[in-house]
Amino acid sequence: MSSNRMETLIDEVQAAFDRQPIDIEDGLETDEADVLQLRKSCRLLAGAETLLEQGFYTLVVEASFVAIERVIEFKLLEGGVNARDLPGTHPGVYTEAARRGILSQHVAGNLQDLWRSHRAKTYYQDGLATNERAKKVFALASETHDFVVNQSSKRHECRCE
After folding, report:
1. What is the mean pLDDT of the chain?
2. Whose CA is closest to 97, among 120, 117, 123, 115?
3. Cα gap 121→33, rounded to integer Å
4. How many CA atoms lie within 13 A of 69 on its CB side?
5. How far is CA 41 from the centre of its chain?
6. For residues 83 and 77, is the Cβ–Cβ distance under 8 A?
7. How distant, in Å, are the alpha carbons of 25, 31, 119, 133 from that of 64?
8. What pTM did the predictor assign?
9. Does 150 score more than 80 pLDDT?
10. Do residues 27 and 159 touch, judged by C-beta distance below 8 A?
């Protein structure tokens, strides 16, 4: 691949994102910002489950942590937080979830620790993803998703099976 080819592809990607979206991924159709984050969490969990079965443990760890953050963002948005005011950092999502009573301070603190210690290590390859680690993080993400969704009046919008 040449630098010219990369530049062409960058332009094509930019143009694709600039166009009005068509052929949208199933399950993500909504005009509500909170519901969109919920459904992204559902899709991330579905994808993580598929990837877990195929042995892509690093991706499962990544998708599981992102699924947790998306479902918390769903609840923050549902609770009246403006999309522009969502926390801009991964740990900040957990802090805000505790501040607003979505998660206990203890759980939010532990999620922050897990994210900082293990997600980052897996991402940067200081730590390696394993089947056990991927299964445990996926189980945590699934439980967190269910816990947060069950606090919502919009739980019917969840697309998890």
Report:
1. 92
2. 115
3. 31
4. 18
5. 5
6. yes
7. 19, 24, 10, 11
8. 0.90
9. yes
10. yes
129-to-11, 56, 108, 135, 142 alpha-carbon distances in Å: 34, 9, 23, 10, 18
pLDDT for the residue 133 = 92
Q: Is 114 exposed, middle or buried (0-12, 13-18, 19+ CB in 10 A)?
A: middle
Type of residue found at 103? L
How far does CA 80 lie from the centroid of its chain?
A: 20
CA distance 104 to 21: 38
Task: State both tokens at 72.
Answer: 């918390």
Closest CA to 34 of 92, 6, 74, 67: 74
CB 37 within 8 A of CB 49: no
- In angstroms, the Cα distances linking 142 to 8, 43, 66 are 39, 11, 12
CA distance 16 to 86: 26
